[in-house]
User: Fold 3-dehydroquinate synthase from Marinicauda algicola.
Amino acid sequence: MSALQCVRVELGARSYDVVIGAGALEAASDRLAALCPRGRALVAADRDALGLHRDRLEGALRQAGLEPVIIEIEAGERAKSWAGLQALTEALLDANIERGEAVIAFGGGTVGDLAGFAAAIVKRGAGFVQIPTTLLAQVDSSVGGKTGINTVQGKNLVGAFHQPSLVIADSGFLQTLPRRELAAGYAEIVKAALIGDAALFERLERAGAQALSTDDLAGFVADAVRFKARIVAQDEREAGQRALLNLGHTFGHAFEAEARPGALVHGEAVALGLVLALKYSQRIGSVPPGVGERTAAHLAAVGLPTRIGDLPGGPYDPQRLVARMASDKKNTAGRITLILSRAIGEAYAFPGADPGDLTAFLQEDIDER
Ligand SMILES: NC(=O)c1ccc[n+]([C@@H]2O[C@H](COP(=O)([O-])OP(=O)(O)OC[C@H]3O[C@@H](n4cnc5c(N)ncnc54)[C@H](O)[C@@H]3O)[C@@H](O)[C@H]2O)c1
Ligand SMILES: O=C(O)C(=O)C[C@@H](O)[C@H](O)[C@H](O)COP(=O)(O)O
Ligand SMILES: [Zn+2]
Assistant:
C-alpha cells in the first residue's frame, strides 16, 4: 500500500485537507466523524458507486461511530438539474439536517457538484465533505468549492462557491471505474499540466498509455491536486487566474450542452477542448505550431477524442457551438473569453475571440477528415 498524501487547500479559517491514497477513507474517518456532530453521516451517494462499495463505506462510517443515512442519486449530467437539486434538498430537509451537519458527497463530479450546491443552499448553508470516487472527481471536481447544476441554457450556469471541510480521495474506489471514465478523468490531469506544469506534461507524455496504470496514476493525482489547491488558494472565486483552470472548457462545455443526452462525458469534451484551445492558440500565433498536435497525440494514446468528428454525442454544428460559447460565464462585455496557451505549462485568458473566426475554425476541424 502506498503512503497517504495530504494536500492542504489554504483558505484561512476555511482551509481544508485533501487526503489522497489507498486507505484514505479509513485513515480519515475520525476526522469525518468530527464533522458529523449528531452521530450520523448524511451521504448523498452515487447509486452505482454505492452498489460497488457500500460495505466498505458503511463499515468505515460505523467504525467511526457514525450511523449512515444514505440518499441515493443516479449519477450523470441529468442529476445536475433543477429536479435533482429539488429532490436532494428535500431529502436533506426530510432528514431534518442541521446547519452544523455536513452533506457528504460520495461519487463522481456530478454527485459532488449537486450535493455541494444542495449543501450551500439548504437552511442557507450546511457543511460539506467530498468522498470522490471517480478519477475526475479525485483530481479536480472535489477540490475548490465550485458547485452547481446545468440548465437548458448550458453547463454549470447556476451554482455557488461552497468549499468542503474535508476531501477523502481514496484510490481504492478507482479500481472499479470503467476505463472510459478513467481516461475522462485523466484529461483533467493533462489540463493541469498544460496550464502550469510543463515538467508534469513531459512525465505524462513519457508514461504514454501507461499513465493510467495504478502506480503512475497515484503520483499524478497528487500532482494535479497540489496544482489546483495552489490556484484555488490564490483566487478562490475566479477573479483572475482561477479562470485558467477552464482551459479547454469553453469549447468543452459547448459540446456537452449540444451532445445527445447521456452520450458524452465531461472529460472527453475537455480532452477535445484542450486540443482545440491549443490549435486556436496556434491559429492566432500565441503558441508555436505543433503544440496542439503534440497534445492530441498524447490524449489519443490514452483513448481520448481529439477531433470533433470523433466526439461521442454528435453531430455538432459549429454555429450552435459558438452560440453556446457566447453564454460562457467567463465572458465580459458580450465578448467570448477563451483560455489559450503561450506554451506547454503556460495558459492565459484571451477576452476577444471572434465568433465568425471561431465558427470557421470549428468547421475546418470537421472538414479535415
Ligand atoms: N466542481 C468542479 O470544480 C468540477 C471540476 C471538474 C468537473 N466537474 C463536473 O464533474 C462532472 C463529471 O464528473 P465525473 O466524470 O466524475 O462523472 P460522473 O459523476 O457522472 O461519474 C461518472 C460515472 O462513473 C460512475 N462511478 C462513480 N464512481 C465509480 C466507481 N468508483 N466505480 C465505478 N463507477 C463509478 C458513475 O456512476 C457514473 O456513471 C461534470 O458535471 C463536470 O462539469 C466539476
Ligand atoms: O475549478 C475550476 O475552477 C475549474 O474550472 C475546473 C473545471 O475542470 C470544472 O469543469 C469546472 O466545473 C468548470 O467550472 P465552470 O466555472 O466553467 O462552470
Ligand atoms: Zn472540468
